[in-house]
Write a structure and sequence with these properties.
Elements: H1 7-43, H2 47-76
Helix pairs in contact: 1-2
């Protein structure tokens, strides 16, 4: 039995996997960063800064959720 190697799919995996890992890591980092900074700003009474940091956290959460959903769609797609 001979195994056929799909070199195009393998090359796509070489760049897509690190990009996906980096995207998810940065997105979750934005959630953590924005949340902790917003909490600190709120405790210090800096409402405007807290709102900006909450926006960063919300953006990170949306990016994280989108990346995870996209990954699930790709994994479950019949190709």
């Amino acid at each position: 039995m001979t195994a056929a190697i799909d070199s195009d799919a393998l090359l796509e995996l070489v760049w897509a996997a690190p990009l996906a890992a980096l995207t998810v890591t940065i997105a979750w980092g934005l959630v953590v960063f924005g949340s902790t900074r917003a909490a600190g700003a709120r405790r210090q009474g800096r409402t405007a800064s807290a709102v900006v940091h909450l926006g960063v956290a919300a953006f990170g959460a949306a990016l994280f959720t989108g990346a995870v959903v996209f990954g699930l769609i790709i994994m479950t797609a019949k190709g």
